[in-house]
Design brief:
By secondary structure, the chain is an alpha/beta fold. It has helices at residues 3-13, 22-35, 54-62, 72-80, 97-105, 115-124, 162-172, 190-204, 232-250, 262-265, 298-301, 389-393; strands spanning 17-21, 42-47, 66-69, 88-90, 110-112, 130-135, 157-158, 176-180, 212-214, 255-258, 269-280, 285-289, 308-310, 318-324, 332-340, 347-350, 371-376, 379-384. One of its GO terms (biological process) is lysine biosynthetic process via diaminopimelate.
Length: 406
């Protein structure tokens, strides 16, 4: 999928628009699988929260992927996409016991990350296998909002609470079949990840009937040309050896599980937006597009970087622009970014838009959410229609004030 293809896609489907390259998703999946190719029982569970379009779920199912889910709605999407319950792992945070029980009743394996729910669930359902999410108290992540393994995180059961955890397990007689951790997104140093893995291995020794160890994900992808990324191949070499040694010591072959989201879909996605206006002030040239943080919130929310290319004029003379949206608040995608000369009507392509873009979009300012397109086998396929005015009203209930008595 090249720039000319993207221009044609924008012309056919309009803008703003999300476009996903299926070939890139597939290649990322197999890159991770190859890095851990020596592991006989390897399971890759795609983190649905990154992008929950059912066509992406179905695409990954064709490759042998499972799913990592964080809500019952994501579980139901997975089932709707054709996944078997046992191919889905449910890892929520802060949800009710009732939701966990409802997911469990569907036959979907569950992962519990707090002592209160663990004790309640174990007392009521001691025979149901449960995975436990621990917090290793090792920080990973390129931003405070996506670092979840630190000491004050709301995620996971503290490794220092292991005695309390074991007391609950012993008292309820519950069946613990897996141990899980997730340190955060944008892992830069695999040695940090490996140190956290040692904590997971130590915790696992407390349980005699484990079937799998889930190491989470958070692998960093490049956001600019030459940007650093997690060295998956080196991680695969080092963690594979350590995992196999642990299995030998444990006396049983276990399944190694990862739950990548952004790693699989981020680079596959482009977000296309048309330039509505070029506005020059005393110090800045603004390129105002037909979108905003209602469609791509990550720059405003995380301060994330997305490369921006003028696909209408890729060979144009570079100039500096601040690319902004049409939301009636500060709505900046990029400040003083060097981009091929932009004129009104040009289409800009934002890179790394496959993860946490549509899934975090909204109708702020009563704007419609864009369509989604998948580029598959050299053709563009619509996988979500653009919203309409009727969609904005669909679930609203209008009060007839003239008929309400004072």
């Amino acid at each position: 999928m090249n720039e000319k293809d993207l221009v044609e896609i924008a012309r056919e489907f309009g803008s703003p628009l999300y476009v996903y390259d299926a070939e890139k998703i597939i290649s990322q999946y197999h890159r991770l699988k190859k890095a851990f190719g020596q592991i006989k029982d390897l399971r890759i569970n795609y983190a649905v929260k990154a992008n929950s379009n059912i066509s992406i779920l179905k695409l990954l199912k064709t490759q042998g992927s499972g799913l990592d889910t964080v809500s019952i709605q994501e579980v139901r999407l997975g089932l709707e996409a054709g996944f078997e319950p046992q191919e889905i792992l449910y890892t929520p945070n802060g949800v009710s016991l009732e939701e966990i029980e409802e997911v469990s009743s569907l036959g979907v394996p569950i992962n519990i990350d707090n002592l209160s729910i663990l004790e309640q669930f174990g007392a009521k359902h001691p025979k149901v296998p449960v995975c436990i999410r621990i917090n290793p108290h090792i920080l990973a992540g390129g931003n405070a909002k996506i670092s979840v393994g630190h000491v004050d995180s709301k995620f996971g059961i503290s490794i220092h609470q292991m005695p309390h955890l074991m007391r609950i397990v012993d008292n309820t007689g519950m069946n613990i079949n897996g141990i899980h951790m997730h340190t955060g997104s944008d892992i830069l140093d695999i040695e940090v990840f490996l140190r956290a893995s040692e904590i997971l291995f130590d915790a696992a020794k407390n349980f005699k009937d484990l079937e799998f160890l889930d190491f989470g994900s958070g692998f960093k992808v490049p956001y600019t040309q030459g940007d650093i990324e997690t060295d998956i191949e080196e991680l695969g070499e080092k963690l594979t050896k350590r995992f196999m040694d642990f299995c030998d010591d444990y006396g049983r072959k276990l399944t190694l599980v990862f739950e990548p989201g952004k790693f699989l879909v981020s680079e596959a996605g482009k977000f296309l937006a048309k330039v509505n206006v070029i506005k020059q002030t005393t110090s800045t040239v603004f390129a105002g597009v037909d979108s905003g943080f209602n469609h791509l919130i990550r720059p405003m929310f995380y301060g994330s970087h997305h490369d921006i290319t003028n696909i209408s004029n890729p060979e144009g003379k570079p100039r500096f622009y601040s690319v902004v949206g049409y939301i009636c608040e500060t709505d900046t995608f990029a400040n003083n970014r060097r981009i091929a000369e932009i004129t009104e009507g040009d289409v800009l392509a934002f890179s790394n838009a496959g993860a946490y873009s549509f899934s975090m979009s909204s109708n702020f300012n009563s704007r419609y959410r864009p369509a989604e397109v998948m580029w598959y086998n050299g053709k563009a396929h619509i996988i979500r229609e653009r919203e309409t005015f009727e969609d904005l009203l669909k679930h609203q209930v209008v009060i007839d004030f003239d008929k309400i008595e004072a």
